[in-house]
Amino acid sequence: MLSTFSRARLGRYLAVSAVVPALVLSTGGAAVAATNTLTLTVLNRSGAKVSVSATVVNLASSSQYTVRSNKKKKLPKGSYAVLTSITSGSTTTLGGRTVKVSGSAKLTVDARQGRRVNLAVSPAPAGLSRNLSARICTKTSASYNVEAYGDTVYVIPTTSKKIAFAALGTWSDSSALADAYAVVHQTTGVPKKPTRTLKVSSLGTVSVVSNLGPAGSNNTDVAVQPIKRGCADDMYSGLWSTDRPSRAKLKLTPGAWHIRSGTSAATRNGETWNIGSYFAERKVAGGKSSTVRFYNAAWGPSTQLPTTLYGRVSFRLNEMFTDPAFTRNDTGGEGGDKATATLSFKGKTVKTKKDRGWEPDMTVLDYKVKKAGWYTLTNTATRYYPEIRYPAGMLSTKSVVSYRFYTKPKSNALAEVNSVTMVPTGLNGWNKAGGKTTNVALKLNRYTQDPDAKRGKNPRFKSLGVKMSADGGKTWRTVKVKKIKGVWTAVVPNPASGAVSLRARATYKSGGYTDVTIYRAYGIS
Q1: 444 to each of 242, 303, 360, 397, 469, how far by Cα in Å?
Q2: Model pTM score
Q3: Which domain holds residue 78?
Q4: Same-domain check for residues 220 and 105
Q5: What pLDDT is stored for residue 24 in this prediction?
């Protein structure tokens, strides 16, 4: 099933979501009238009247209305923000201003008052292309905005504190062969000079590593979105797209950012589909550095655990191929799998649930517990995407997870087991190992799935074992597990070629266990 990604590409393809340009207001009519109206007149940059729509927002209630220029619009009496976008040839002018509607109000928005938006960095990067976007927002309980893209964007100044301005500028070579830059400028009100030059020395750095191997496509991209920024929140800019492993540095203005990556693939009928998306949040500080790694080996079961809620065992089938750096489903993922889950009690299967691939909703195994005792839940998933051809030699083709845990009727509890995530280290950009051995870190976690399910005590650890297979799971060999720098690590001997499958089992003193298998977890160079 294709995951429902928590955050879509916001802004890039939106024309107007709820924001309007600066306006010049004149009011007429009696102070008290039976009907309150607003008449909007809009002039383009040549001074000609044009017909456009504007978003009008009540400042007290955040109620939103659509107003067409050159027509009277009945509105409740009150104060409003008016937002609009005016296109003149290759230029776009945005404006926003507050206005009081009482009786007959008339408002003229004149694009000739617009000031050109510009962002720059110093020293200027050579050989890079710039993308520029600007936005004007309402500062209301429910924010609306209007946005435009390109090198000829203008905004109409206003000093209103109910209106905000933001601009996002990015520079890249579109192929991740050079450093990229992304800067944000935002203000309350719209400044008379909507320009800014930022020194490179004031920026922070995020190194972005994009590997290949487990993804369902060799085409990946990287984009940025400022977050937690008010008017600039979730503005979007793509930086590069490539069909090879890449390493590049992003120079960013301080603040919170989402670093995003997506995968796209050609379908059998020649279309191109977005089949996956990941985003990593980073708090950027000037002069400081951090790293984001996408498409790491080995994709396997997420940190999800079985939960008994109101006496019903619940487990989602569709989280079996997660990047070990993105084990929570709210950080994105890639679609393309089918799965079969079973729940057994005393050796007898009491529930089976199947996902045949691309079901319209999340598939969940759900079972009402009839007797107290030890249950075993197993979910087996394979990669499946009928509309596309997976890359030759793709990694992480199948995964299996089993949990043995105790539960009882009317229980509200998280299963007393851990998730196990396997993280191979020292691989190249294609997620292939070149040495005699590969260290595989084993991360055990126990995250709460539902606030109504009691976490209870953590399982008392008994043993941790790992096996490897060099023949696709036909035969398995036990490998040494030891602690390296405080982390349980499997030291896996590498075969001469092919790929390595991994199996880990954590057992607990209670009698429960966690068993995880990832087929073709990493390759051999």
Answers
A1: 34, 9, 32, 22, 22
A2: 0.86
A3: 24-114
A4: no
A5: 38
